[in-house]
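Sharing in case it's useful to others searching the archive later.

Someone asked me privately for the predicted structure of Peptidase A2 domain-containing protein, so I'm posting the question and my answer publicly. Question first, with the sequence:
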Amino acid sequence: MSSSTLPSSSNNMKCDVISPCSNQINIDSPTTSYLIAEAKVNGIRGLVLLDTGSGLTIISFQHWSIIGDKSSPPIPYTGPDIHGPEGSSICPVGWVTVDIAIAGIIIQHKAILAKNFKHLILIGNDLMKNIGIVLDIQVNKMWLRTKPNLQYDISSDLSNAGRLDV
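And my answer, the predicted structure tokens:
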């Protein structure tokens, strides 16, 4: 499952864009734009990546060592290879069931543990569709379809994306 349609060889590519209103503009990073939100996973608050292009919820294997339930080992992953937002294999190692609190609700949900994954937690479309999350990127808000008056902040600022409250 990939959240990016770019081939992996183009991820580090530099692009030149010429605008009719200005001189040449150099873009040194890919055009990937992340959405993040506050959530709790297994009772630990932090920021999660919201990825509507991913069909799965993914947790970094290293991060799992902090938030995981030691009494419940992961179920080995035996499916096809999975590609992450950057286009490379995430090296899936297992399935886990986690408690996710987001947008005012708590749900038990399955997630993939991945060894080659630079984000801590990615919330995929599997969870967002399941609970009915609506994203409005113009006003940086999310809400549940069943509770449109209870809105929660989202952001595209990754400067705090590694923040964890443990």
